[in-house]
Amino acid sequence: MTMARMLTVAAAQLGPIARTDSKASVVKRLLALMREAKALGADVVAYPELALTSFFPRWYFEDQAQIDQFFETEMPSPETQALFDEAKRLSIGFHLGYAELVDNAGSKRRFNTAILVNQQAEIIHRYRKIHLPGHDQHEPWRAFQHLEKRYFEVGDLGFGVVNAFGGLMGVCICNDRRWPESYRVMGLQGVEMIFIGYNTPVHNPPAPEHDALSNFHNRLVMQAGAYQNASWVLGVAKAGLEEGVMQIGQSQIIAPSGELVAQCSTLGDELCVARCDLDLCLSYKQTTFNFERHRQPEQYRLIVERRGAQLPLQNT
Ligand code: CDV
Prior knowledge:
By secondary structure, the chain is of the alpha/beta class. Helices cover 24% and strands 27% of the residues. The strands form 3 sheets. Strands 1, 2, 3, 4, 5, 6 and 15 form a 7-stranded mixed β-sheet that branches. The protein has a 6-stranded mixed β-sheet with strand order 7-8-9-10-13-14, covered by helices on one side. β7 (161-164) and β8 (167-173) form a beta hairpin. 3-methyl-2-ureido-butyric acid binds next to loops.
């Protein structure tokens, strides 16, 4: 008989963060959510992408010093130390997204990063966002910018999976969730829970006809990713009207069956909590998605050999 492996997780959705809000004031909000998560029995609390500041890629800055104010040069940093201290005191793990500035003897690299921290407040996993959406030049015609391609480098750590919290944990960030490859690379390492923080504007300037489908697409990709890779998925939003830009909420916890088991209902600071049996992954991993038995990687070569679509030659 299979024993259940229960992990109680809380998706800690954040409401808007103003540009003038200090990191210290945001950390106070994160601490309040952490304490509430613990009181509700959570073993792990998950915060969104770039959780310490307003979503700054919406602005075009020329002054690098101004951009760098949104970044952390160390973790824990003086402002976030309190999070690590409280996590250790409460014995709760956490997932945190933030802007990471790596300074190697004067050579600076910037990443959109998320970490997993265990109940002893040790960083046990780091992921740097790979699918960076948006553009790298100022495009004034847009209602707001999306300059992730300007402010961040493509992540260099791959889609790793780590043994933590009694199971196999993975992380990807926001736009990564729209790409089946993100989930599959983790699925091929046996992932059992995937943490995904996001900042998703309702309005998509290059394709406004998609706006009405923003919440649907959010659910669609995460439910498909969970089911097709037999893994739990936690999606955590920074939501609401932030500096004039409306962002979707619907932070959610999805089972390996693809079913939604918990979801936030506001656009503010809010927890949704689920008691997740990691062993629920097994029946999918051993049957429909038994990769070893059913996958045909030789037939998928184009996925790694080709980036963009090339049309087949016409028959003449
Ligand atoms: N932060 C993001 O990666 N946002 C993108 C938006 C720009 C489409 C997303 O995929 O939600």
